[in-house]
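[Solved] Which block belongs to which protein?

Original post:
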Amino acid sequence: MADLSGLPRSHGRFAGTRRAGLIAAAALVAASIWAPQAQAQAAPDSQRNCRILSEMPAADQADFRRRAAESGRPIPDGAEIEVCREPIGQGASLAEMLGPADAPYRSVIRWAPGTHFQVGDGEVLRGFPMLVKDNIETADMPTTAGSLALIDNAPGRDAPVVTRLREAGAVIGGKANLSEWANIRSPNSISGWSAVGGQTRNPWDPERTPCGSSSGSAVAVAIGLVRGTLGTETDGSITCPASVNGVVGFKPTVGLVSRTHIVPISHSQDTAGPITRTVADAAAIMTAIAGSDPLDPATVEADARKVDYRAALDANSLQGARLGVMRFLIANYSAEAQAEFERALVNLRAAGAEIVEITEPPADFRQIGGWELTVLLTELKHDLNLYLASTDPTQVRTRTLADVIAFNAAEPRETVLFGQELFERAEATGGLDDPAYVEARERSFRASGPEGIDRMMADNRVVALIAPTTSRAWTNDREDDDNAQGSASRLAAVAGYPHLTVPMGFDRGMPVGISFIGGKWDDARVLSLGHAYEQRTHERRPPPAPVQPSPANGG
């Protein structure tokens, strides 16, 4: 278990539930927590005494349910639970440890091996264990965005997307670590690192990046800590960590899911979305969270556009589907990722898909990145100032981006690894009326959406675009030459269109994913195509063993 001293303090009435959140966050920092598939860390059978909760005497069942609820981890109705008596020091556990701290044994509640939760009518996620990224507000835990400036930010409210998850029956057990401020503070930021949570590790290789700002959310799913998580994406922050950690990630159409009470970067590109083991689980989460929110104007069409995404999945949807390969991107990927993609094309054709080669990029494709940065920095200042103004001033003393910059400058723990150059550039922007911003947003959207994804799909008569999501995770060593290679995220991110990544194979032993991208509101079709590919290939694998980071790396 990682040192918890740098994590958010409990806040009175939040203390019990926050305790569970600390365990979840600490697990992601060290990436060494017990996972259901990782039996290597469990105590030997001779030292374990496990019982199924439903087989225990009624009084004992009631006692364990009471203690679990008091610890902030209530046991869902209908969930089968294994209760184990283990020696202290035999390794960390996903669940809250109950009992006296000085006892030689503690009772540990786990999901029972092979547990599958049944979905009840009207509750698409009944008993579904989840974490949410620590930039999404929950009423029972502080929301820090990984920054010490927000360490006391506990306004006691659920983001509407969290309310929808709870109403659908999901069990939210804690917060997942993230790249601080969702990776927008500096061009030299380190994916998975935050001053609050430390460094999230890639479970396939702790010396390699977990990628993207939703890194903790992806690692939690990859190691079996939970069945699904909620991440956020502005450009690649769901799809990249899902790809390099070997799980499913879905960035929905911007405007399908509420962003209210989520620490923002950009109202043009931000969205929440699921990271899961399977496309079916991602579709179930989307069914729960999609919908209009009167406080988020971008979602005005969401109620009319949403469907039951899980019911819309069709394992035969690739039959006769025309898919456009964004061949103009492929040379940017590693040779191994390219080879895995060619193998994926063979599987797609075998499933009945017709593959169409798209060799020319959209007009102005190479200018999109510059325009995008202008948009993100301008909207960051505007949107973050609005968010900070909505927090409790007794908890959050940094009321503007300028205040956060000053806080970071005075707090050595914030700038020990990298600076805040992008924050400073954002503070210098001229606002949403600045002609440079207005022009950049109009040009970037047109080039990526109407003249980008839409035109490529129409001209080639395809229903979706495909490419490798990215190459293998690169190392965290700035001095070597193992760097990021290739990305499929930008067009869909800037246009605000749906983007799904599904495990595709391995690049030098590291997971890589395949991307399915569609037009605006094509979320159901994109999920169905990815589901059909997943059902044919079954490429997802769990990491070979729990990762134990070395002391030199902060484990």
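(Second protein starts here: sequence line, then its structure tokens.)
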Amino acid sequence: MGYKVPRFPNADPEELIRRPLQKRLKFLSKEWGEWGFGAARKISVMYLAKLFGAWLIGGALLVTLTSHLNPLDVGSWWTNPIVYQKFVVMTMLLEAIGIAGSWGPLAGKFGPLTGGILFWSRPGTIKLSPYKWVPFTGGSRRTVVDVFLYYGFLFSLSAALFLPGQSAADLPALERFQRFLTDPADGVPSWLSQNAESFLLIQTTPLIFAVIFLVLVGLRDKIIFLAARSEQYLLPVVFFIAFPNLFEVTDMIIALKIFLVTVWVGAGFSKMNRHFSLVIPPMLANTPFWPPRWLKKRTFKDFDNDDLRPGPLAHFFSHVFGTIVELTAPLTMLFVVGTAFGGQTMVTLATLLMVGFCFFIISTFPVAVPLEWNLLFAICAVIFFIGYPNSAGFSAFDMSEPWMPFAVIAIPLFLVIFGSIRPDKVSFLASLRQYGGNWATALWAIHPDAEKKLHRVYRPTKDQIDQIQAMGLPYPLAEAFFEMVLGWRSLHSQARGLFSLLLKEVPDIDHRRIREAEFACNAMIGFNFGEGHFHNEELIAAIQEEAQFEPGELIVAWVESEALWHGYQEYKLIDAALGVVERGRWQVKDAVEEQPWLPNGPIPLTMTWRSPDFNKLQFTATDIVGPDAVPQPLDELVESEAHAEEMAR
């Protein structure tokens, strides 16, 4: 790949997309394993400029200037409570607009680069109600009420962000906090005591309205609720409101420490499964600047001899740098107090290790690109555990009431445990399984003649394949490039079961267009972050209301996350016109031990139910290209590739 021009799959585009599915998967999985998505490096530079230029530098200017602080005097404000409060609020606002995570080409948004607000501010677009039994929350289309609640949420967050903070004169708890910091007997570090009088807290009234609007819009539409990353930011925002007004500012800081550790430990717990080792090779493969190709290939068992199962290096990365570090380092940060176990030096080293952990994730540019979230957590780790040392009265044992630490962890702990036991009831985001490899996900198998029916669905964007063609690529090259995401998906455990299901139950699968559901979902609702519950039968039914597919035209293989150490995953076969037509399960062990392209055929599937309507499915696809994309002669294709390169320049 070059700086301006992407690396296209190293094959004739039309010949590649007409290969049988298994041969195509073998090629695509090896291409991804060595090169990743192949996006031009300027895309990665764009993300870095957005992260460090817009979010970090621009955010620091916004946060300090709106709080009447001197942005150039970093030493005076880096531990000021209002700074990290506003950074949290700002990041939540950007997520809710759709310009933080799940943004840009690496999230399947080629043009426009943003989904989010373009969808959620328009009545008539698809919404997904989490609890249809709650009165006045049903329906599959967004209304004026939903748009009002959404804008109310955005406005409330913006008000909290732009309003100047509360001073000690406004808030007795802040005055007590300042007295604590400036009392020499308390042994508080100089960087806190010297600047304590300038410390401020964010205005809580607009935050109260933001929470109310978010809960109301969330009851009507789980898309916006989860897109705002409520599992990461809602509870801290509640801390910003409750602790300074009802208890102590010190309690708020300690609560944020506990919450930060709970998130990391919960995520580490989610990695204790058979799936996680398979995440590492495709994740590292997408890194544009490091490691070298030979090291990427070494994460597989035997890349050159076509064994693309994770190798010893991948297992080491996953279970040492991943699971063990994410469990032990945060607990060290939280519970080491005084001089025990190396004291603050050990806490600082553990903190820097977790900062490095966040930067490692940033460096891989993971699909859905949650870069701002990782940088925010890195910054908060430094502020909370180095800026506010445990030994200075900011440990988990120093809260003003003994029940407080348990109250802080109650909700996230419940969501992690219950979500692991019943993944069908809790979003994998809320149960902190973002990187654990144990996901609900899906693949779409669509008849080439019928894909244009998706254009009937009201939304502000087109499908990704249309977005790529709008950039100047002819259909065969656009299709070949976009199918790289199938190579990415095939390297994860769930894909072996999903492709097995399609190979077993869809006779014309070699002639169908296969769409990775997370990307396809993005084009329908404006957001996805690996949440398979966004694109289950509920979304397919909402699409069908306008698309009107015939039986067999759009078939979806969908699978739920593995319940805690059950050893199997439960799948559904969904037809857009008929609904769920088959249910069953496969053993996780069979999936993780097979190659991505299933050279031994489909893994064993156990069907537990089949609808009588299954026989209504029609399998008539004969050419993956379809009538809407006439192949071009090779010389014209070369000219089109040259045109694409010229556009990139």
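Accepted answer:
You had them paired correctly. Confirming on the second one: DSSP finds 27 helices and eight strands in the chain.
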